[in-house]
TrEMBL record:
This is phosphoserine transaminase. Keywords: Amino-acid biosynthesis, Aminotransferase, Pyridoxal phosphate, Serine biosynthesis, Transferase. The keyword Amino-acid biosynthesis applies. Signal peptide: none annotated.
């Protein structure tokens, strides 16, 4: 049976495993004999409650989330979290917040903190080097721990393709906040090193509209902000109501839950990490084999396993829009889609999240090689 499915290298919304889509499809009209689709069920119904709690439990199992952390489903996407982090963790305002700026997303988060009146200390900012590396600890300017409300980093910069494989070392008394939107579930995460981890679902989890928050329970409601915080931006509201304070994105949580079961069925995140490492290594190796034609600019140790970015170079050694267009066109013709780099960065970006099978990466590698041979080697 031909499914007419493309190899989807989109950064988000992104690929979802075919088996998950099939399962969702099978229950589209009648979920578990209810005579309704999941998206038609009341969020207060028994059926939905079961879906909701199983999704939370399965996510806890996958990430090995300790008891002292709450797992929440909130709304607003990653961009809303930029503000929610400040509202929930800054406190009454006499403290500094430390931001590691390693790409477009942590830069935006730091800007939002400033907008809300936080005193932002930039621990590192790699913008002048075009966000291609992460500086070593000796170059960081961390604030004094007793003055720091929290430290913040983005584990994987989706636009620039830069990933932290080691958790940044900050004083254990300083709550560490992590935007894991584009790398969550691609490998195990040391939860206890963090105070708060969040992720928009539309990359490595499921449909857009769901945002996962993992937060240490003792921080909930513990730091009243400068002025009252809207209830829907206060994580305590969600924790107190098991993420059912208002109507959650029920369909998105259902499909996310199917993805969690898919991952558990595959044996969890260690196995996933091995596959993801292999997929990324193959692609980087193929690009590196033609240094006059392809340039994957991110420094080796922080090259993202999820978002592989590169430029196609002309004879003059400069990025060539024309050759990039040709590369993308040939990719489309081979059913490989959504490979265009982010509009702010240009070039090519292959997002190879969990749901992109190794076979899809092999197809891309074959096209990289074919393109190199027919251009110039
Ligand atoms: N953080 C990261 C790492 C992202 O990649 C994105 C979006 O691509 C965001 C935050 C913003 O997410 P959203 O579009 O859900 O607001």
């Amino acid at each position: 049976e031909s499914l007419n499915r493309a190899w989807n290298f989109g950064a988000g919304p992104a690929a979802i495993p075919v088996s998950v889509l099939r399962e969702a499809q099978a229950s589209m009209l009648d979920y578990a004999g209810s005579g309704m689709s999941v998206m038609e069920l009341s969020h207060r119904s028994k059926e939905y409650e079961t879906i909701h709690n199983a999704a939370i439990e399965d996510l806890r199992r996958l990430l090995d989330v300790p008891e002292e952390y709450a797992v929440l489903f909130v709304q607003g996407g990653g961009s809303t979290m930029f503000a929610s982090v400040v509202y929930n963790l800054l406190g009454s305002g006499d403290k500094v917040v430390d931001y590691f700026v390693t790409g477009a997303w942590s830069e935006k988060a730091a800007q939002e903190a400033k907008l809300l009146g936080a005193q932002v200390n930039t621990v590192i900012n790699t913008k002048s080097g075009k966000f291609r590396s992460i500086t070593s600890k000796s170059e960081w300017t961390l604030s004094a721990p007793e003055k720091t409300a929290y430290a913040y980093y983005c584990m994987n910069e989706t636009v620039h393709g830069v990933e932290w494989f080691e958790t940044p070392e900050v004083d254990p008394s300083v709550p560490l906040v992590c935007d894991a939107s584009s790398t969550i579930l691609s490998r195990p995460i040391p939860i206890r090193r963090h105070a708060l981890i969040y992720a928009g679902a539309q990359k490595n989890i499921g449909p857009s509209g769901v945002t996962v928050v993992i937060v240490r329970k003792d921080l909930l409601g513990a730091r009243p902000f400068l002025h009252p915080v809207p209830l829907m931006l206060n994580f305590k509201t969600y924790a107190d109501a098991n993420s059912l304070y208002n109507t959650p994105p029920t369909w998105g949580i259902y499909v996310s839950g199917l993805v969690f079961k898919w991952l558990l069925g595959l044996g969890g995140l260690e196995g996933m990490e091995a596959i993801n490492t292999r997929k990324a290594s193959k692609l980087y190796a193929a690009l590196d084999a033609y240094p006059k034609l392809f340039q994957a600019p991110v420094a080796g140790p922080v090259r993202s396993r999820m978002n592989v970015v590169w430029r196609v170079l002309g004879e003059d050694g400069q990025p060539s829009d024309e050759l990039e267009k040709e590369f993308l066109k040939g990719a489309e013709a081979r059913r490989m889609v959504q490979l265009k780099g982010h509009r702010s960065a240009g070039g090519i970006r292959a997002s190879i999240y969990n749901a992109v099978p190794e076979e899809g990466v092999d197809a891309l590698v074959a096209w990289v090689e074919e393109f190199a041979k027919k251009s110039r080697a």
